[in-house]
Amino acid sequence: MLRYTETPDKIVVFFTESTFHSESQIQEVGAGLIELCGLATTAGKRMLLDLRDVQFMSTAMLGKLVLLNKLVKRNKVVLQMANVERTIMEKFRLTRLNKVFWIIDDDDDPDLLATSVPLH
Predict the structure, then answer these.
(1) Beta strands 117-118 and 56-57: pairing type?
(2) Element housing 115 (H / E)
(3) Could you tell me the fold of the domain covering 2-118?
(4) Which of 25, 78, 81, 93 is deepest in the core (most CB within 10 A)?
C-alpha cells in the first residue's frame, strides 16, 4: 500500500491505494509510515507524503496521520504533504488539520514515482 524512494534530503512516500477506510488497510499503512519515519530519523532526512492518488481517507486514517505527525515532531523529522487532492484538502480544512500539517505546493517529480520501491 506504500511505495517510497529516497533522495539526498528526503524520503518520499507514495500511496498505492486511492481509498483508505478498512481497518486492515489503515493498520498496514500506519505501520509502514512508522517504519519510514524511523528510516527518516536514522538518515536525518525529511519525510514527504505524496497524496496524488488518494481520493478518500476515513477519520481513522486521518488519526494515523495525526499520530505520525506527533511521532515525527518527537523525532525531529520534518513531515510535509504534497499533491493533495481537492476532496482530501477539504477534509483537512473541515477538521482543521490544514493548520496542523505542512502542506506544500505540488512536488511533481515523475522520476521519483518511477524509482519508488514497495515497502515490504
Answers:
(1) unpaired
(2) none
(3) Transcription Regulator spoIIAA (3.30.750)
(4) 81
78 three-class SS:
coil
Domain ranges in the chain? 2-118
Question: 35: Cβ–Cβ under 8 A, 6 or more apart, which residues?
Answer: 119
CA 49-55-56 angle, 5° bins: 95
pLDDT tens per residue, the chain (120 residues)? 999 999 999 999 999 999 999 999 999 999 999 999 999 999 999 999 999 999 999 999 999 999 999 999 999 999 999 999 999 999 999 999 999 999 987 665 655 655 667 776
Give dist(CA 85, CA 64) in Å, integer: 18
| Residue 64, C-alpha cell as written in the block | 494515523
Q: Write the CA distances from 36 to 6, 55, 85, integer angstroms.
A: 11, 22, 22
